[in-house]
Amino acid sequence: MTVAAILSGKGHDTITVSGDVPLSEVCKTLAKHKIGAVVVCDGPEAIDGIVSERDIVRVLGNQGESALKHPVSSVMTREVMTCTEENSVNEVMARMTQGRFRHMPVVKDGKLTGVISIGDVVKFKIAQVELEAEQMRSYITMA
Question: Looking at per-residue confidence, does 79 or 43 come out higher?
Answer without folding.
Answer: 79
